[in-house]
């Protein structure tokens, strides 16, 4: 691309080019080699994949909103560097990223052992302070019950362990994280602190906001899809952390031949990597590079907003057709604080695909004068594409930068939460569910069902109910399946024993994790930590809640780590032709059932 651009630039400016350039319509390899030698500051780089949302969301408008709210909080509470914190989650798996090794040329498939093809996810919550301190991390393990003796074995004192079947952060677990944060920072109404985080929905529950407000925590969320630029943890801590973690896990695998790393080995490895990565130098560099502390509104140059150039549109309520998202007051502040500030049009004209910023091509791009003919610029040869105007408002849910603990934002979040609860109740009412004596929820038969001579089946009732619920989901983009799952029956909190129906997760050699329903036919063997299980199969006509035993008995030994949780007792089938089927009042959404 760069060689062809050099040829087009030469032809457009009537520069004599060699005949091979005209034949190939491209500059030669020797020219590119010489160009790189003459400009030693340039080198070939592998591009880092960046989503379109991240590329376009980091613009002057979003940055200006964040910096305005950050400045407002700093001035309102007179916060020092020891009162400014950043929180974020990152994930680690039991399969390490392998390092590069020296091998003989021509050798193929140079391999090294890993625990399995696909690892289990453990979420780590990191919290750092602008003065260079780091709090002990929190871990979210992919289990139903928390086993501190095994999961936190080898972890330093002060670390917090949590569990969830998916291993992801949830609203209930985030409340425990805030309690962990308060116990280490000693914040209060008299000693307020600022906590900067992203606007994930697990961070914005009403209980978490109320707890933060009661304990003097000011919550400030980042603009959506800008954490790669504005979050100190992402800028300077989590990169080294992942490197040190992979090195530690790789060394563990080499020191324990024939053993697989499990989630019970992760806490000490992740804690050690956190101690090495969360150093005062790295932490302060992260806060400084994002302009959080010291507070600096001119920390980003116009080159940093180049990715958003193609989607820059005029503000809806603005009469000025400006291609920059920067507000006038923000631009004046930047000009006042940064003497090297450039107008967007000046820096945009210097953006050349394939050629670094600020480096002139082979032919000088000097401005036209009366003595020298006008030069055709590179942007005229290959103009930057611009996205078309939006046709309408997007229905998708989008967060925003806000001070969550302020009363207006808190009231808005409460209103949305009440609206979701109301929608869930309306769906439940439309589903016309009633409770049997044993507490099992079942749809009440309608008059139309009774007119069929009693031939309607439980499976048809369930299918009709779930179709009605799916139709309700599609009506509103603000209603998520998770909202309905929260009111469904969850796992039974008990130790698995003989006769229980359990949900089992199996990691195949290839592909994603699959899940089965099985009945325990024996208690756990203390020697091998294994259960004897008889597997059920999901029926083809059901929506994931109806299972039956296959004609050929499928029994196997299952390690206790693969047992995700105990399911509620199945609903008995009254009809003779449906005997042998097991229907569970459990939300299997999100599980790859077989």
UniProtKB/TrEMBL annotation:
Transmembrane segments: none annotated. This is DDE-1 domain-containing protein. Signal peptide: none annotated. It comes from the Eukaryota. Residues 122-287 form the DDE-1 domain. InterPro entries: CenT-Element_Derived, DDE_SF_endonuclease_dom, RNaseH_sf. Pfam families: DDE_1 (PF03184). The lineage of its organism: Eukaryota, Metazoa, Ecdysozoa, Arthropoda, Crustacea. Residues 310-349, 424-461 are annotated as: Disordered. GO terms for cellular component: nucleus. One of its GO terms (molecular function) is DNA binding.
């Amino acid at each position: 691309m760069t060689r062809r651009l050099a040829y087009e630039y030469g032809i457009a400016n009537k520069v004599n080019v060699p005949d091979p350039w005209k034949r190939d319509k491209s500059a030669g390899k020797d020219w590119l080699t010489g160009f790189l030698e003459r400009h030693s500051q340039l080198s070939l780089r592998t591009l880092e994949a960046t989503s379109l949302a991240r590329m376009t969301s980091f613009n002057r408008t979003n940055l200006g909103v964040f910096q305005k709210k950050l400045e407002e909080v700093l001035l309102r509470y007179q916060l020092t560097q020891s009162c400014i914190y950043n929180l974020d989650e990152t994930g680690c798996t039991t399969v390490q990223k392998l390092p590069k090794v020296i091998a003989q040329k021509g050798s193929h498939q140079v391999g090294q052992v890993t625990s399995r093809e696909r690892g289990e996810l453990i979420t780590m919550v990191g919290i750092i302070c602008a003065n260079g301190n780091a709090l002990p991390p929190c871990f979210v393990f992919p289990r139903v019950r928390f086993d501190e003796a095994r999961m936190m074995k080898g972890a330093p004192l002060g670390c917090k362990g949590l569990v969830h079947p998916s291993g992801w952060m949830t609203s209930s677990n985030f409340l425990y994280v805030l309690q962990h944060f308060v116990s280490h920072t000693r914040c209060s109404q008299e000693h307020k602190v600022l906590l900067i985080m992203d606007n994930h929905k697990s961070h914005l529950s009403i209980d978490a906001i109320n707890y933060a407000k009661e304990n003097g925590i000011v919550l400030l969320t980042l603009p959506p899809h800008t954490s790669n630029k504005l979050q100190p943890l992402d800028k300077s801590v989590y990169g080294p952390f992942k490197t040190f973690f992979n090195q530690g896990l790789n060394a563990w695998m080499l020191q324990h031949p024939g053993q697989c790393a499990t989630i019970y080995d992760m806490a000490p490895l992740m804690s050690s990597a956190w101690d090495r990565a969360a150093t005062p130098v790295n932490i302060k560099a992260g806060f400084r590079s994002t302009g959080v502390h010291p507070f600096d509104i001119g920390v980003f140059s116009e080159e940093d907003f180049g990715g958003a150039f193609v989607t820059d549109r005029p503000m809806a309520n603005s009469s000025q057709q400006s291609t920059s998202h920067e507000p006038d007051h923000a631009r004046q502040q930047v000009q006042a604080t940064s003497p090297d500030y450039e107008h967007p049009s000046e820096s945009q004209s210097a953006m050349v695909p394939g050629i670094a910023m600020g480096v002139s091509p082979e032919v000088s791009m000097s401005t036209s004068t009366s003595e020298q003919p006008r030069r055709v610029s590179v942007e005229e040869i290959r103009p930057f594409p611009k996205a078309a105007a939006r046709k309408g408002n997007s229905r998708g849910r989008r967060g925003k930068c806000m001070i969550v603990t302020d009363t207006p934002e808190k009231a808005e979040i409460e209103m949305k939460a009440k609206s979701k609860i109301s929608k869930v109740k309306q769906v439940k009412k439309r589903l016309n569910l009633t409770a049997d004596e044993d507490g099992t929820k079942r749809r009440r038969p309608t008059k139309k069902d009774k007119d069929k001579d009693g031939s309607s089946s439980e499976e048809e009732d369930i299918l009709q109910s779930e179709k009605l619920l799916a139709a309700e989901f599609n009506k509103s983009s603000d209603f998520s399946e998770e909202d309905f799952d929260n009111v469904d029956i969850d796992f039974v909190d008990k130790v698995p024993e003989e006769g229980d129906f359990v949900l089992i997760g199996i990691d195949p050699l290839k592909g994603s994790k699959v899940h089965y329903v099985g009945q325990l036919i024996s208690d756990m063997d203390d020697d091998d930590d294994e259960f004897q299980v008889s597997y059920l199969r999901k029926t083809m006509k059901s929506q994931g809640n109806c299972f039956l035993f296959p004609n050929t008995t499928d029994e196997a030994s299952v390690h206790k780590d693969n047992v995700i949780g105990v399911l509620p007792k199945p609903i008995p089938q009254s009809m003779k032709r449906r005997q042998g089927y097991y229907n569970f009042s459990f939300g299997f959404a999100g599980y790859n059932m077989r």
